[in-house]
Amino acid sequence: MIARPVLVFLIVLNLGAALWWALHTARAPAPARADALPPLEIAKDVGNAPAVVPDNVAVTPQTSAAGLADARCVLLGAYGEARDVQRALTALRGIGLQADAVTRLNSPRGFNVLIPPLSSPEAAADVQAKLRAAGFQDQFLIRQGAQSNGIALGRFGTEAAARALLARLKAAGFQAQLSPVGASTTELWIRALHGGEQDETSLRKLASAPQAKSIACDQ
To answer: Where is the SPOR domain positioned along the sequence (predicted)?
Structure first.
């Protein structure tokens, strides 16, 4: 009598297990959190697009002759026109040299200090006497030309020396003036820096310059 209920119980248990497996569907795994995933990287064919350099990356500049230990400087010129300077700069920079245009000012050849022409030789002689009395012995009367009846008091190679005498004369009451000898002129030159591979002759020919002068690189 006991065996029959046990048998029925086992049959019912087996039927229940079979029914559970038949009706069961696998549950999908829980999705991973988005913030736990590694960042998505998308490969992109950039072709010939220019590279972008981050702000914190130093870019090494192109080497120039200025960075050479044996750098030398040469002055090329003088040129008659600005377009000649531009052509020469293009030629020099075309072979990698550092070159710049330079304008040089040529001062007058000298400076005369004189008293302008007076009304007559007698008036000039009177002023000469006063000059000698005031201690200005170096003088002579100009007897011809545009400055006739004027009084020359000296010629100086520098403007500073001429102005020093001019100040002394004016302090003594004489109306003297300064007159440059020759006009001031400007010249167009090129200052080029090279590493010694080229000599002055080759650089002068390349730049079509009348002259080439070696100069200190700090000039």
So the answer is: 105-185
Dihedral pair phi/psi, residue 205, rounded to 5°? -65, -40
How far is C-alpha 78 from the chain's CA centre? 21
- Strand ordering across the sheet containing 211-215: 98-106, 185-194, 72-79, 211-215
The closest of 106, 120, 114, 158 to 136, measured between CA atoms, is 114
Residue 211 near residue 78 (C-beta atoms within 8 A): yes
Mind listing the pLDDT tens digit for each residue in 81-112? Answer: 999 999 999 999 999 999 999 988 777 789 99
Q: Collapse the DSSP code of 161 into the 3-class scheme (helix H, G, I; strand E, B; otherwise coil) and give the result.
A: helix
Contact 90, 207 (CB under 8 A): no
CATH match for 110-181 among 3.30.565.60, 3.90.180.10, 3.30.70.1070, 2.60.120.10: 3.30.70.1070
pTM of the model: 0.43
Residues in the chain with pLDDT values less than 70: 1-10, 12-69, 219
Q: What is the CATH number of domain 65-107+184-215?
A: 3.30.70.1070
